[in-house]
């Protein structure tokens, strides 16, 4: 089996069809179709059921998909390992929560680029649960997430602990309307748990996709949220916000860096982890001074 055939097969599965796969692979549909047919002939097995214009994985296709993912990942790891030996840096795909990426990641990336000048960085933001899935599926080399992570396939490095605080507009006592990130955010889960413990009925949550958007809406009294204390201290809305402590079992949330055990060991990852730890320590000290 050729790697190109496996790559094409994987794209068809993940994109849900020939047309979408051809767009992702930047090729014509006939090339995708011919590669799939050639693969089926080589394996003497039907990989897809044809349903009108759609495709559904056949039992043999399910089996091949698992192996194709492993083979293509190994091919990627082999290339990265060889580049490391040759003192080339390769690509580093990093995931982070919105709050983390907005205020804490940039200084660490600056140090990473200074120490590993050839590294090609790719950064994506998402919820903690979505980032865990991306690392498990080898779509990211590492990610910074909040909360406890119990996955045998992952290596977990403790970055620090964040103290979540209740955030409201100054002079407001609004606690009924929560303004939060979307489902899968660790801070959202804590906010909903806090709301229940306060004996309040959880009404419709206002969901926003950016840190600035959430704190901006809170600052004008549209609702309240839970955020790390240092995030509030560094926000441009800090002077318009009031914070209040919540019980420790809800406020203290670990931040961790995760990577796959089968991933290629990279010195750049070690540099990144150390830079983030030092950045977190500096931010927390600055926050303590500002709120003292």
UniProtKB/TrEMBL annotation:
InterPro entries associated with the record: LysR_HTH_N (IPR000847), LysR_subst-bd (IPR005119), WH-like_DNA-bd_sf (IPR036388), WH_DNA-bd_sf (IPR036390)
Residue ranges constituting the HTH lysR-type domain according to the UniProt record: 1-58
Any one Pfam family match given in the protein's UniProt record, by short name: HTH_1
Keyword DNA-binding part of the UniProt annotation: yes
Keyword list, A-Z: DNA-binding, Transcription, Transcription regulation
Gene Ontology MF terms: DNA-binding transcription factor activity; transcription cis-regulatory region binding
Keyword DNA repair: no
Family membership noted in the UniProt record: Belongs to the LysR transcriptional regulatory family.
Protein name: Transcriptional regulator
């Amino acid at each position: 089996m050729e790697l190109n055939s496996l790559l094409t097969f994987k794209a068809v599965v993940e994109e849900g069809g020939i047309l979408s796969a051809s767009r992702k692979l930047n090729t014509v549909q006939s090339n995708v179709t011919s590669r799939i047919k050639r693969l089926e002939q080589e394996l003497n097995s039907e990989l897809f059921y044809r349903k009108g214009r759609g495709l559904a994985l056949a039992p043999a296709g399910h089996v091949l998909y698992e192996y194709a993912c492993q083979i293509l990942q190994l091919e990627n790891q082999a290339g990265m390992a060889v580049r490391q030996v040759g003192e080339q840096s390769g690509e580093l795909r990093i995931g982070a929560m919105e709050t983390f990426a907005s205020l804490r990641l940039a200084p660490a990336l600056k140090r990473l680029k200074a120490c590993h000048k050839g590294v090609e960085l790719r950064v994506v933001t998402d919820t903690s649960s979505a980032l865990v899935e991306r690392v498990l599926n080898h779509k990211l080399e590492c990610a910074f997430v909040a909360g406890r992570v119990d996955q045998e396939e992952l290596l977990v490095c403790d970055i620090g602990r964040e103290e979540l605080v209740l955030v409201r507009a100054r002079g407001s006592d609004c606690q009924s309307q929560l303004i939060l990130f979307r489902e899968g955010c660790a801070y959202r889960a804590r906010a909903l748990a806090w709301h229940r413990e306060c004996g309040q009925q959880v009404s419709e949550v206002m969901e926003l996709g950016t840190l600035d958007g959430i704190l901006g809406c809170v600052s004008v009294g549209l609702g309240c949220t839970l955020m790390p204390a240092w995030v509030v201290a560094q926000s441009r809305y800090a002077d318009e916000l009031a914070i209040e402590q919540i019980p420790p079992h809800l406020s203290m949330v670990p931040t961790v860096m995760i990577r796959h055990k089968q991933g290629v060991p990279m010195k750049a990852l070690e540099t990144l982890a150390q830079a983030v730890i030092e950045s977190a320590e500096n931010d927390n000290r600055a926050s303590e001074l500002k709120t003292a």
